[in-house]
Amino acid sequence: MSLWGGRFGQGPSPELMDFTSSLAYDRQLGGDDVTASKAHVRGLGRAGILSNEEVGILVTALDRVGEELQEATFRFQAGDEDVHTAIERRVTEMAGDAGPKLHTGRSRNDQVAVALRLFTKRELAQVAREVVALQQVLLDRADAANDAYLPGYTHLQRAQPVLLAHHLLAHGWALARDVDRLWATVRRADVSPLGAGALAGSSLELDPTGVADDLGFAAAFENSMDAVSDRDFVAEALFDLALLGVHLSRIGEEVVLWSSQEFAFLHLSDAHSTGSSMLPQKKNPDVAELARGKAGRLIGNVTAVLATLKALPLAYDRDLQEDKEPLFDSVDQVRRALPALAGLLATATFDTARMQSAADADASGASVDLAEWMVARGVAFRRAHHVVGVLVRESAERGVPLAELVQAHPDLGSEAVPLLEPGTAVLRRTSPGGAGPGPVSEQLERFRRLLERDLERLSN
Ligand code: ARG
Question: What is the reported pTM?
Answer without folding.
Answer: 0.96
